[in-house]
Fold this sequence. Notes:
The complex is a heterodimer of chains A (417) and B (97). With 417 residues, chain A is of the alpha/beta class. Chain A is built from eleven helices and 18 strands. In chain A, the strands form three sheets. In chain A, strands 1, 2, 8, 9, 10, 11, 17 and 18 form an eight-stranded mixed β-sheet that branches. In chain A, strands 5-6-4-13-14-15-12-16 form an eight-stranded mixed β-sheet. A two-stranded antiparallel ribbon of chain A has the order 3-7. Chain A is globular. Chain B has one domain: 2-Layer Sandwich (Folate-binding fold), CATH 3.30.2270. Chain B has helices at residues 37-45, 85-96; strands at 3-6, 11-14, 19-23, 53-59, 67-73, 79-84. In chain B, the strands form two sheets. Chain B has a four-stranded antiparallel β-sheet, with helices on one face. In chain B, strands 1-2 form a two-stranded antiparallel ribbon. In chain B, a hairpin with a 7-residue loop joins strand 4 and strand 5 (67-73). The model of chain B has no long low-confidence stretch (mean pLDDT 96). The chains are: A alpha/beta (417), B alpha+beta (97). Chain B: One of its GO terms (molecular function) is sarcosine oxidase activity. Chain B: This is Sarcosine oxidase delta subunit. Chain B: One of its GO terms (biological process) is tetrahydrofolate metabolic process.
Amino acid sequence: MANRYSLWSLIKNGLKHHESWQPAWKSPQPKKNYDVIIVGGGGHGLATAYYLAKEHGIKNVAVLEKGYLGGGNTARNTTIIRSNYLWDEAAHLYEHGLKLWEGLSQDLNFNVMFSQRGVMNVGHTLQDMRDIERRANANLLNGVDAVVMTPQEIKDMVPLIDISHRTRYPIMGASFQPRGGVARHDAVAWGFARGASELGVDIIEQCEVTGLIIEGGRIKGVNTSRGDIMADRVGCVAAGNSSVLARMAGLRLPLESHPLQAFVSESMKPCIDTVVMSNAVHGYVSQSDKGELVIGAGIDSYLGYGQRGSPHVIEHTAAAIIEMFPSFSRVRMNRQWGGIVDVSPDACPIISKTRIKGLYFNCGWGTGGFKATPGSGNVFAHTIAHDDPHPLNRAFSLDRFATGHLIDEHGAAAVAH
Amino acid sequence: MLVITCPYCQEAREEEEFSYAGEAYIARPAVPEEVDDATWGDYVFHRKNPRGWHWEQWQHVAGCRKVFAVKRHTVSYEIAGSWTLADGKALYLEEQA
């Protein structure tokens, strides 16, 4: 790698006053033809391009991004990574992703700041605790780490949490996945972009796909704001805008795009060194390396592409966090944002071929796509390279909505969607 | 915060009084037992999910509890109007034609 990062390169560039660093990825003009086009330059799309080049030897690849890299949901999430899903298919897929996360910084030679600080899912009712026991047992059977904790064990790990009976919904226990954690969202996009670019992938920003060129049931290329670009295989990884792309191909998807909001506080001294999520009161919180509390909400109920939601959702989430952490009540919030999440009927992704030959979709990740970034790219690259799904994503095909083989993670997963 | 007018109560109220109830005017296959699985799956699960104007249902849960139709833009969140389901359907069909 021409630009390999190491202690050596840091010292060498330091001696040159850090003025000789090269751009991490190239920004070429689009060519007329590619073997594969990936529509969408977020984490999932860039990971797909990276694994296509690295594992399948397909290097004549373009990633087309209408804005800037990682500027969509990759930059608009709460960076939580876990794999404690209930059903076998989902647990295997997310666990595949988690295993890739564990070696990702070395693999990419780029520090994605993956921190396995654990993810805790607290329960507030007897039924919550039954569900937690069931899910933890299912996780253990699937080789996913899981521990069930008592309120006192929670308090020992997170001293600021209120486990008293004074609260409206007292905490009765939790599940904990020690291998879960958080990562730096931008670094994931940048690391994959750099890795893919190094292997010969063209990363083209400010290039919006405006149409799909389809002849005789086969994909031939795409119309873009920078001219037509031809390719026999096109992979769409456009999250909230997937339905818009599908319509260009005359397809309908079982997706609804909703705003999902999150917000961060002012920086504080370290006070919480794990991720705490609550399904019942509905909020999740972790602390970033900068000391900000990163707090997430539930989706806004209505359809929305506007990357913003309604204030009462923030109010509800803040109430949930203060219920668990009364000492956060006077923390000031710094920023708030909304992303567009593509929610599928069973809260599981669609990683699938379509009835148009050579056109593939990777979408429907809904509220939990960030955690799957490397895993999603890895299996989608396999699907495109072989024109056949990877064993891990075979169950996540589009036709499950006709056959009825849904993987119902709505509510079964550790947090409500 | 959306401000929605209930066509029954004839009052503009904040979104918190209402519940979103999904895409409006999804036609159920006329003879369900005769359609194939793909058509039925399309009816049950697939949605228009447009980036633009969207006909949708809202329920006035904290008021009259009636369900009605709203035409709303999914990017600007602007609301073009709200109607009873029957009145809205006539307009919707006119637009589709």
